[in-house]
Amino acid sequence: MDTENSDVARAEELKLFANEAFKANKYSQAIDLYTQAIELNSQNAVYWANRAFAHTKLEEYGSAIQDATKAIEVDPKYSKAGYMRGAAYLAMGKFKDALKDFQQVKKISPNDPDATKKLKECEKAVMKLKFEEAIAVHGSEKCSIADTIDFHTIEVEPQYAGARIEGEVVTLDFVKKMLDDFKNQKCLHRRYAYQIVLQTREMLRALPSLVDVSVGDGNHFTVCGDVHGQFYDLLNIFELNGLPSEENPYLFNGDFVDRGSFSLEVILTLFAFKCLAPSAIHLARGNHESKNMNKIYGFEGEVKSKLSEAFVELFAEVFCCLPLAHVINGKVFVVHGGLFSVDGVKLSDIRAIDRFCEPPEEGLMCELLWSDPQPLPGRGPSKRGVGLSFGGDVTKRFLQENNLDLVVRSHEVKDEGYEIEHDGKLITVFSAPNYCDQMGNKGAFIRFEAPDMKPNIVTFSAVPHPDVKPMAYANNFLRMFS
Prior knowledge:
Largest sheet: 6 strands, mixed
Distance between the termini: 41 Å
Number of strands: 14
Number of domains: 2
CATH class of the largest domain: Alpha Beta
Radius of gyration: 23 Å
CATH superfamily of the largest domain: Metallo-dependent phosphatases
Strand order of the largest sheet: 1-5-6-10-12-11
Helix content: 40-55%
Number of helices: 18
CATH architecture of the largest domain: 4-Layer Sandwich
């Protein structure tokens, strides 16, 4: 009995330490401490719900749903657990599942004004979703918005003093002026925004789903991870490593937008460099280059606010043209998320993916965008609730079967901006320092020098940005939980 009491007391102590770590934004440490508390006393719903909350902060929504479900099993009347699960479903875009949880929370706490507010917001989101599904045009009937736009017919008002493209060609002078305007929080005229996005679309459409990149001996190539709308940190990368050019080429490995509130500036910058010199910048699709994510995490709201509704649709169309992976010099495989739920996937299988669609919820394309490495061998469920986790043996076999040396991927915040795993065969690179203004992480990029193609990792810290909070344009409902 004494042991049992001391376990309960120790668990409570660990919870308090975990709460402190959580407040200090040390979410992984908080998860470890809540886990220790759960091991000593698994019948306390608070520990499970708190760990679920920490998982949501790390975008591990699959794990958050599992923990919140366990909290509900332990104490069906504990409304915070319903909140947590509802919030995690919401973050995954599963509005209908979220609605069920908030209805249950309202039943448990009928007089809680917060519960009422969240339920109303969720009902609105589901109604909107049903309306959009009802009016959606499917399949071949749907015409491309890009084909309906002629940017030449859009007038530029005489009072517009920003960057201008003279004629059809994007020049370096234009790009530098545009970057300067963006730095000073000025918008680009929609005529030129249309021109950049439409020209980029033409280039991306012509590319295969897996792009081979060749780097000549004595030359270098830089790979960046997620930038997530952190425009001022993107400018800092260019300060540290030079502007993209044919002599200084880059690959940006997905998740250009969402979360950070300068996503439009980021995407127009990357697209403008693509128009300026197609071989100077390569772009891969991330899981956030999708309608569902953009609706929730801010890019849709930002584009509507800074440009127009039509641009939302146009970006969604262009994102479907982004390649899914790159191979550098036949040796380095670069992808946003990770590897696959089955062995034997060849590069030719990736080349053969019909990528011109919204990402599906399973299959090779989904796994390329969503999967994560795990320390244990084999495969496991994804902590995100989409894709899977794969071990070092999976990485090793994939590399051997395709005569490759290294996997480079992004998709996960890392304290140092990068992490080397799987016996040095896999590197995660993440280029959004102090992610969401709260994670305190460094950013990183990788420079490869040909012919040896050894990764040289450069880390950097966040730089100041104007006082616009991350997620400023995000779904109202999600902001309640962030």
